[in-house]
Each structure stands twice: as C-alpha cells, then as structure tokens.
Amino acid sequence: MFSLLKELPSISTLLSIYASVSAMAMLIRTICNEVIPKPMRNYISSKVFDLASRCLSSDFTFIIEERWQAVNNETFRAVEAYLPTRIGPSTDSLLIGSNEPLNPRAPPKQSIPVDCKIIDEFQGMRLEWTLRSTDTKKYFPREKRYFRLACKKGDRDRVMQSYFPQIAKKAESILRERETLNIYTYDQESSMWESTVFKHPATFETLAMEPELKQLVKEDLDSFVARKDFFEGVGRAWKRGYLLYGPPGTGKSSLVAAIANYLRYNIYDLQVQSARSDADLRHILTSTTNRSILLIEDIDCGTKVSRDRAKVQDDQQDKEDEQPNRISSSDPGVTLSGLLNFLDGLWSSCGDERIIIVTTNHKEKLDPALLRPGRMDVHIHMGYCTPAAFRKLAATYLGIKHRSSFVTIENLLQSTTVTPAEVAQQLMKRDEPEAVLESFIHFLEAKRNENGESGAQTQKQDGKNG
C-alpha cells in the first residue's frame, strides 16, 4: 500500500498538469474564436450537444405536427381527441370553457392548453405528452402546433406498433360519438379555418320532405359510411357528392344540417370567392379534416366558376358583338378546372370519408362537367311544399297529426306553389292550432289567387307581344 502511494504524482505535479491543460484549452478556444465565425461555432456546439444528449440520455421523443405533407395530420387529430380522456391528477394545467349560451350553469368542458403535460401509461410504459406551439410565416401566416411524446428508447417500437394504433382506434370512437359539432368558415386574412359550435336542430325526423326521399338519403349515407373497403377495392376516393337544387326556402340548408347531425360530421362552409387562385383553393380544401362535410352553398351566385361554359361563351360573344372595341378578359381567381380537380381529380384523394354538398337555386346554369357522377353522385330536388311535407310541419310546429281542415289545405297545396319555409312561418304565428289552420287556409287562397292573376297577366302580355 505504501509503495502504491509513493508512486502517485504529487499535488504540485497535478496542479502543473491542470495548468498546462487549461492553458492549452484557452489557447485553442482563442484560436477558434478568432478563426471560426460565430454561426459556425454555434452550429458545431449544437451538434456536439445533440450527440452527447443522444449518447447519455435514455429518452426518445416523437413529434406529431398538425400538418403532414400538405394535408392535416390525422395522427395529430387522433391524439387531440384522445388526450382529454387522459387528464388526471398529474396534469399541471387545463383549458376549460363552455359552448352552451342557453345553459350558463352547465359544467365547463376540458381541453389541452399549450405547454400542458399529460402522463399516460400503456402496457407498463410511462408516456409524457406535451402540446407545443410556434408561429410560422414560411408559406401562410399561421400558428404551428405539434405534440411532443417522450418515452424510453427501449419502448420506441412498442409505441409505434401498439400505442399509436390504440390511440387511433379510441379517437375514432370518440369522434363518432362527439357531443358537439363545429361549423368552419375560411378567414382569408389569416389563411386558416375559423370554427364555431354548430347546434342546428334539424334532423331527418323534423325535415318537411317526402318520406321516401328521406329514407333514400339515409340509406345512401349509411351505405357510404360502411363501404370503406369497397372504395379502396375499386380504386376510388372515399367521398360522396350531393347536389341540392330547387327554389329558395325549400329546405336545402335544413337538409345539410340534418345530414351533419345524422353522421356527426363537422361542416366546412366554403365561399369559392374567398380563394384567390386554384393553388389557394387546394390549400383551403386540403386543410379540412376527414369525416367532414364540405358545403358550397349557392354555387351559381357571385362567381362564374361553376357556370355552363358553353352559355358563358355565348354570352361573351354577344357582348363582344355589341361592343366590338372592348377587350375581353377572364375573371381572376378560381377556375372550374381547379374546382373539378379537387372534386374528382388527383387532389380528390387527399382525405377520406368526406361528404361534398353543393346547393343551387338554378341547376340549369351549372356546367355539365360539375354535375356528372363522381362529382355530384346524388341529385336531390328540393321542391315546393307537398301534403306529406305539410303534415310533418303541422306535427312539428303545432303538435297535431290530423284535423278536418287538412283536406282543404292539401287540396289547396296541389294548386298553389308555396315553400316549406313559408308554411313554417304561417304555422308559427299563433299557439292555437285551429286558429293557425284557418289563417293558413286564407293565406293559401290568397296565394293561389295571386298566382292566378300573375299567370293571366303573363299570358296577356305574351299575346300582345305576339
């Protein structure tokens, strides 16, 4: 033992060695600071730190961003739905709020705020989740959100093979049974969809439609939802297009709400005019989520993108003939081909389980290319009020299924054009059913006389012109 201690260097020797090493390190540092630019030094330091962290740390980190390859990341959406169910005592912060203005005493709902940590356990693994957010202006100014999942390096494969599939399965169940729906509108300034709670009361039970037509729509929706394997097998995008056409006030918007409530799908209300170009339209449409409804209301109003191209060319030729010196120019913005490419082109495959609903008051004005199967698969005519629709409205608004005056009303409806919206307005005027029905009969008689006089005047005018 004494001999070993005798062979050890003295303290003065150790101090001398330390001083030499420190001097050499300071010399190297001074040379590096003088020769190597600061950005390069920072880069080298970061790489050395990352290498040391990977070698010394036993943790592994997954990053799940909100966007993935130009579309919404479905894994992010699944985690966003799943994590609120894992809120527990270890959660360090919560985002709470209420979306029930008619029930201020309702308990607030819970959500995940930025930088909140949630601990989950799965098959003996400890998993730590954190929601992060950064601002980015690379392409479109918007908030960039992502989830950070920390686990042990040895658990990485099990997380990929078992944990993420379990999250996807539970998220699908949560989204199918969600209590509230959202309706989204696109904000052009911020280049993102803004949402609000959708609480339209319309259902298939309350719709004033022919029973056969309602049943047809419900069966078609059920078939669409259940045939994922069929769409994949035949090589088609898992989507369905509906065209709702008819006069204003015939219940097109109510049918859209009933479909959303029936399927529990969120609604993306698109105004085609809000897109600056076809590229902008693609960004807008690929920002929608799966299991949703893309709604384009009154597509024939306010834009020429959907107009029949042959008729537009004829109108343009007439204008040029009237004003031969006028230089013609095409309207900027979205083109019909840009819209069709998303409905049934290559971009239509960017998303699954989507319903596309287009409404119009004038089907004849739309380009035939927009109406063909594969784009608008189901055409539903929303017409004037029928006796069956009146009976449904009477049961809904007055709580009655039959009265002696129904026969008179139904006979008048056969010869009078009146929309379900007009009928509903008349049935809401009073609380006494008999008084309401009597007033409604007078309304229908006046409407019929008005239509008869208008028709006679039109025929008379046509005779003079002839």
TrEMBL record:
- In residue numbers, the region (Disordered) covers 307-332
Q: Does the keyword Ubl conjugation apply?
A: no
**What reaction is this protein's catalytic activity?**
ATP + H2O = ADP + phosphate + H(+)
Q: Which GO terms describe its biological process?
A: response to stress
Segments of skewed composition (Basic and acidic residues): 307-316
Which SUPFAM superfamilies does the UniProt entry name for this protein? Answer: P-loop containing nucleoside triphosphate hydrolases
Any idea which UniProt keywords this protein has? ATP-binding, Hydrolase, Magnesium, Nucleotide-binding
Q: A GO molecular function for this record?
A: ATP binding
Q: Does the keyword ATP-binding apply?
A: yes
Checking Pfam families in the record gives: AAA (PF00004), AAA_assoc (PF14363), AAA_lid_At3g28540 (PF25568)
Domain AAA+ ATPase: where? 238-386
Q: The organism sits in which domain of life? A: Eukaryota
TM spans (from-to): none
Which cofactor does the UniProt annotation name?
Mg(2+)
Q: Which family does it belong to?
A: Belongs to the AAA ATPase family. BCS1 subfamily.
This chain belongs to which protein, by name? P-loop containing nucleoside triphosphate hydrolases superfamily protein
Species annotation: Theobroma cacao
The lineage, from the top, is: Eukaryota, Viridiplantae, Streptophyta, Embryophyta, Tracheophyta
